[in-house]
Amino acid sequence: MSENPDIDFRQLVADYYQPLYRFAYSLSKNEDEACDLTQQTFVVYAEKGDSLRDASKVKSWLFTTLYREFLRIRRRGANVTYQEPEIIEAEAPQVDPGITSKLDGRSAVAALEKVDEAYREPLILFYLKDLSYKEIAKMLDIPIGTVMSRLSRGKVQLKKALLSS
Amino acid sequence: MDINKIKERLAALRPEDLDPEDPEIGELLMLVEEDLELAEWFAQEQVFDQNFAAKLQEITPPAGLDERILEAMKQAQSATDTAPVPTSTGEQAEDAPALPINVPVAQEPKLEETPDDEKITEFKPETTEEAAAQEIPTNEGGAPCPFNPDATKRRWWQNPSFISAAAAVVLMLVVGIMMFDSPELQAEDLDQFYQDISQHHASNQPLSLESTDLSAINEYLSQKGAPTCHNLPENIDPLPEVGCTIMQWGGQIVSVVRMQNHEQVDVYIVRSGLFPDFSSKPQPQTVTLEQMVVLAWSDGDMIYFLVRSGDLEELESLL
Questions:
Q1: CA atoms within 13 A on the CB side of B121
Q2: Which positions in chain B touch A121 (Cβ < 8 Å)?
Q3: What is the DSSP letter of A3?
Q4: What are the pLDDT tens digits along chain A (165 aa)?
Q5: Which residues numbered 79-118 in B keep a CB inside 8 Å of some CB on A?
Q6: Considering only alpha carbons, which residue of chain A is nearest residue B199?
Q7: What ipTM does the predicted assembly reach?
Q8: B interface mutation test: which of A68, A134, A158 has the most B CBs within 10 A?
């Protein structure tokens, strides 16, 4: 870190607090929780970021930290969901791209909520465009091929959700 | 490659990732060029993706969040500077941001809260004048309270030497527990996981694949991106497999491999990233829950949790 952490922090927050908040909100669907997650992520950085020597990894580090914090909080809620035994989806329904014109940020997140959890997280990261496929795979701890297949299956479910609503 | 497979692969590509130099993407783009219908579908797909991504960008944080974050960071850093927080592993690798999960949200510094160090009143020796100026305690009626020396005495348990001794005992207990490695894990998340898999085991969920062939089971799990089953302990390995299924916990896929040993035995397998601290525990761990016992151990990148009904003695027969 530099000798003047205030300048570093200010730049860091300016660069990443908005994308991190979007990610947090997309995960939690709750403004207060999204703020807490975003703030907590930066606090962790302030406390432990000294050990992060490679500046090019800061972004993925922040996203991963936020995601793990989200998982940690959510696990307290004792959730166990079972995946479909067979996760092969039918072909994606035809959707007029104009259907998205009726959406805003919140309703887009609400539509994502209808996607199965396993597909939702890579799909959120896919649309936020902050991380590469490789970084998404590393964050979710799954192979990159699995990311790709979950993306396409998640998109099928997303389109069905948009059509049904 | 059939058209559905091609579409599946294309659907997962962002416009900015369409690098024709990439052999796989280049091949897909060639197919798009050759098939007008596919090209039309792909163009629509890209428009949909762009539009949807733009909607997510409309999510904006509340005003002032950046300043609140900066304030919280400064407080956190000053707290760290004065009282360094030890890391659980001693050193954090730059590509392993697992440590942050140990910091609970409930403890995060809040802007409106007064930091603890500001609550401490600086000690100043009292001057005679100041002491004289202090009010004498009075009763409700205004009459001075009689001096009662006993009231100013500490109780025996408030005696500093007793508190010190008690603290030492607690410290020794904590250290002792850590040294002797109690098999009962205390981690909140792990406890929840134990309970959840026990309930799952008790509910006798149907299998996604019924097979007595472990390699077929592993192949199935691998196709689903789920952890595979390897290196089982000596007495568990020979148990006949019945099949497998997958479930999800904490955003991660959990494999469930079912075996038969007089009764049903389920082995739950997770990637070690789910419980980063687990490998530092003594192995195997044994946990007793309501009419269920769990045997847990880590092996390489995986953590295994064997669950069956009965008591610990029955489980130990498998060790």
A1: 3
A2: 251
A3: S
A4: 444 454 488 999 999 999 999 999 999 999 999 999 999 999 988 887 666 767 778 899 999 999 988 988 876 554 455 454 444 445 667 777 777 888 899 999 999 999 988 899 999 999 999 999 889 999 988 888 889 989 988 999 999 999 887
A5: 79-80, 85, 87, 91-95, 97-101, 103, 105, 108-109
A6: A80
A7: 0.88
A8: A68
B310 touches chain A (CB under 8 A): no
Which positions 215-244 of B are in contact with A (Cβ < 8 Å)? 224-225
Give the three-class secondary structure for A161.
helix
- Do residues A70 and A105 both lie within one domain? no
Residue A91: strand pairing partners? none
The reply to whether A87 falls in a domain is no
Across the interface, whether the CB atoms of A105 and B66 are under 8 A apart is answered no
> Number of residue pairs across A and B with CB atoms under 8 Å?
234
Answer for the pair A37, A65: CB distance below 8 angstroms, yes or no.
no
Asked if residue B291 lies in contact with residue B314, where contact means CB atoms within 8 angstroms, the answer is: no
Give the CATH number of the domain where residue A160 resides: 1.10.10.10
Q: Which residue has the tokens 């479909």?
A: A84
Structure tokens at B37: 């219908």
Q: Are residues A112 and A69 in the same domain?
A: no
Show the domain range for A21. 5-75
A29 found inside a domain: yes
Q: Which amino acid type is present at position B190? A: L
Buried residues in A131-154 as b, exposed as e (16+ CB within 10 A) = bebebbbbbbbbeeebbbbbbbbb
Are A70 and A79 within 8 A, CB to CB? Answer: no
Residue type, A122: P
Size (chain A), residues: 165
Alpha-carbon distance of B6 to B32, in angstroms, equals 9
Residues facing residue B305 across a β-bridge: B268, B296
> Are A47 and A108 within one domain?
no
Cβ–Cβ contact B252 with A under 8 A = yes
